[in-house]
Design goal:
The protein has a single domain, classed as Rossmann fold. It has 9 helices and 9 strands. It is globular, with a radius of gyration of 18 Å. 38% of the residues are buried.
Length: 267
């Protein structure tokens, strides 16, 4: 099956893609298109969100991954950088607009049977959604429909939830996190660790849900799915006041231990 992977150029997407390639079996042809950010890439965001973006993107894309290319580890690393995926025979490129004629042409040229979205930063329109015969599925890092939008893990921690999760769902239109739900995987929140750690921890179960969906599609041509019982809640990026309140509660967006834990998987 030809599978187009739409992801974001951040560490969460990279870990998810690595997990996918190590988990999936069978013969598939993959291509990856990367967006550069999730949501509005606005430099007027509160400073804590800009710092978080550095940890999620710049630290790895501009420092760690280039260092790996110049000084590769002696033994084969567990995970590959985005450039490293090319060693697996997977075409990887960035895309800044997917719904324009050029973007649609790029998708049609690959002619995917299925599109899988993981943290992709661009909203898909009908011209792209209609291309793959098996449709488009998206892994959302939050429980739907209650946590639509961005930074769902932050909202779960903000509201003192005991558990959080990821949702695999179909994308049928340009609505955000609104398609039929395929599966939801839940796990306990670890309030001793950061928002970033908890978010990254979602992808082991979430990727397994993607693999199971691909197997189902291969066998039957579709996945069992259901409509959410309500529209739920949509969240945008937290405000400066919400971020200060988050910190006052003793909660962290990220910590240096996160970087150490992640980096060890690439060396």
């Amino acid at each position: 099956m030809k599978i187009l992977l739409l992801a974001n150029k951040d560490i969460a997407s990279n870990l998810a893609l690595n997990t996918l390639f190590q988990t999936i079996s069978g013969t598939h042809e993959f291509q990856i298109l990367l967006s550069s950010s999730v949501g509005k890439n606005n430099k007027s965001k509160p400073q804590p969100l800009l710092d978080l973006a550095f940890f999620e993107q710049d630290l790895f894309n501009q420092i760690l991954f280039p260092a790996l290319q110049k000084n590769p580890p002696l033994k084969s690393p567990k995970f590959q950088s985005f450039v490293g995926f090319k060693k697996l025979g997977i075409e990887v490129s960035e895309i800044h607009s997917i719904n324009c004629m050029a973007g649609i042409k790029r998708v049609k040229t690959f002619s995917p049977d299925l599109i899988v979205s993981i943290r992709f930063g661009l909203i898909l329109q009908s011209a792209v959604i209609s291309i793959p015969k098996f449709g488009v599925i998206n892994l959302h890092s939050g429980k739907l429909p209650n946590y639509r939008g961005v930074m769902a893990t932050f909202r779960a921690m903000q509201q003192n939830d005991t558990e959080y999760g990821s949702t695999l769902h179909y994308i049928n239109d340009s609505g955000i996190d609104s398609g039929e739900i395929i599966s939801i995987s839940k796990q306990a929140l670890d309030y001793q660790r950061s928002y970033l750690y908890n978010t990254l921890s979602l992808y082991n179960k979430g990727v397994k849900d993607i693999v199971n969906a691909i197997i189902s599609i291969e066998i039957t041509g579709k996945c069992k799915s259901y409509n959410a019982h309500s529209e739920g809640n949509y969240f945008s990026f937290p405000s400066e006041h919400e971020l200060k309140d988050f910190k006052r509660k003793g909660l962290k967006l990220y910590e240096y231990q996160d970087v150490i834990d992640i980096a060890q998987q690439y060396y």
